[in-house]
Specification:
25% of the residues lie in helices and 24% in strands. By secondary structure, the chain is of the alpha/beta class. Bound molecules: zinc ion (ZN). Zinc ion (ZN) binds next to loops.
Length: 324
């Protein structure tokens, strides 16, 4: 072999190893780049459009009454436009997600109900558990693996479950007061809720179903705009299974409440079963290799006129399909 061809073979080998390493570490590298970019400053309060039943309660939070006992609490100045939901029964109340760690949501909740409040998050990302420790009664879904991780009664999310590092938030654990099993109900007093396991966005994601009112509070599982299916522990396989199950379970009139709003849609983010069908078809197209997508990372795959699924690369062997 000539010197030049041997050099080419070696160079090719080094390049292949380099590309392999870059491929393997793409998610932490991209998250690091997002971290370097930082969060944009809070938006100007004056320019934010409001829903009909929505009002500012201070200079950060708004409250929109979905009905006299159901409130969407949002953070419209924060670029993630987080929504948490307070459901009040005749005896107690449940806060679904506690928002980002930027401010204190407990003061808003105290202004809406004098009933004892429990909190549960739809998943463990920092913008859904940010105020857990401001409440006395913190519930968690009774899912395999979570209970076993308690240390002296406290649960502490792992870095990739929490992701707060991308905006400089430290991980705080919390004491767990109770475990809510998938399929089990919780009665707030004349108001019954069912916990559903809805893995996809994360393996431990749950949704809260209020069957009587045809409502599902589903966190970041789905929604109009962008479906975040590129996170470190997202599974497209789980997305497909969960979506199939929800389509079979939920009555067609069910409204699905998501946890992130859009700047041009001032109401609580809500979608319907038709959007779930589009999601199911979109993920099936990813599985079948008929949805090429666009962009580098995450890849954007349109599923209908107003929503894209954002995925890690979806080829064979990638975490998107094979995680868990
Ligand atoms: Zn999330």
């Amino acid at each position: 072999m000539s010197k030049i061809s041997s050099w080419l073979v070696r160079g090719g080998g080094v390049l292949a190893v380099g590309l392999g390493v870059a491929y393997f570490f793409r998610t932490p590298v991209m998250l690091f780049i997002i971290t370097l970019a930082g969060a944009p400053p809070l938006a100007d309060q004056a320019g934010i459009p409001m829903a009909v039943n929505e009002e500012w309660v201070d200079d950060f939070y708004t409250v929109e009454a979905l009905d006299p006992q159901t409130f969407a609490i949002s953070e419209p100045r924060y670029f993630r436009n987080v929504y948490s939901y307070l459901l009040v029964g005749s005896e107690q109340a449940l806060l679904i997600d506690s928002g980002s760690p930027i401010r204190d949501i407990s003061k808003v909740v105290a202004g809406l109900t004098d009933k004892p409040v429990s909190v549960i998050s739809t998943h463990l990302h920092f913008d859904h558990v940010g105020n857990h420790n401001r409440f006395e009664t913190i519930l968690m879904p009774d899912l395999p693996g979570l209970k076993a991780r308690l240390v002296e009664g406290h649960f502490v999310p792992e870095a990739d479950e929490h992701l707060g590092r991308v905006e400089g938030f430290v991980i705080e654990g919390w004491p767990v007061a109770g475990w809510w099993a998938p399929g089990a109900t919780m009665d707030l007093g004349d108001r019954v809720l069912t916990l559903l396991s809805t893995p996809g966005h994360t393996p431990d994601s749950v949704s809260i179903w209020e069957k009587e009112q045809d409502r599902l509070f589903m966190g970041d599982y789905a929604g109009d705009g962008q479906v975040y299916a590129f996170m470190p522990n997202t599974s497209l396989r789980s997305y497909l299974e969960t979506t199939e199950r929800l389509i079979g379970l939920l009555p067609s009139a069910t409204l699905l409440y998501a946890a992130h709003g859009a700047a041009d849609f001032p109401q609580a983010p809500v979608t319907d079963i038709a959007a779930l069908v589009d999601l199911r078809n979109g993920v099936a197209a990813l599985r079948d290799g008929t949805s090429p997508g666009a962009g580098f990372w995450p890849r954007a795959h349109p599923i209908n006129g107003n929503t894209v699924i954002l995925t890690d690369w979806s080829g064979p062997g990638t975490s998107s399909w094979d995680f868990q």
